[in-house]
Specification:
With 152 residues, the protein is mainly beta. It has one helix at 59-68, and strands spanning 7-13, 18-21, 27-40, 46-58, 74-87, 93-106, 123-125.
């Protein structure tokens, strides 16, 4: 049976992207994205719930994220959910759910931090590698992603 792992989010950055290169030279950017749901509770009171998402962009998308995204900026993200685990320095097992970006569109204006006015920037997309698959980047890095390569 076929399966689908696709996420679409529109939200605001919680902080500036953290941009690094793996030891193999692959660009990677991480940032948090807030999505907010507004609803009425059983008593009719307006409520607001914010979810925070861990976002990871690789290759050209990482470079563009670093160049154009700043705290508060609105962005449209397409990607896939991944889960990874590792042992911290004390030997404790840690887990993290992330959205690996496959396409993004910058919304609002960079100067305003995002709000939604103005014309959206163009959309960018690429094939994003998985952690254990060979990297297929236009820059030609043939490295294989392994946990030790992750800079965060």
């Amino acid at each position: 049976m076929a399966s689908v792992n696709k996420v679409i989010l529109i939200g605001n950055l919680g902080k500036d992207p953290e941009f690094k290169y793996t030891p193999g030279g692959q660009p990677v950017a991480t940032f948090s994205l807030a999505t907010t749901e507004k609803f009425s509770d059983k008593g009719g009171q307006r409520q607001e719930r914010t979810e925070w998402h861990n976002i990871v962009a690789w290759g050209k998308l990482a470079e563009l994220s670093n160049q154009y995204l700043k705290k508060g900026r609105s962005v449209y993200i397409e990607g896939r959910i991944t889960n990874r685990s590792w042992d911290d320095k004390d030997g404790n097992k840690k887990y993290r759910t992330e959205i690996v970006v496959t396409a993004m569109q910058f919304l609002g204006s960079p100067a305003s931090g995002g709000g939604g006015g103005g014309v959206p920037d163009p959309e960018y997309s690429q094939s994003a590698p998985s952690y254990d698959a060979p990297v297929s980047n236009q820059g030609g890095h043939g490295d294989s992603m392994v946990e030790e390569d992750l800079p965060f």
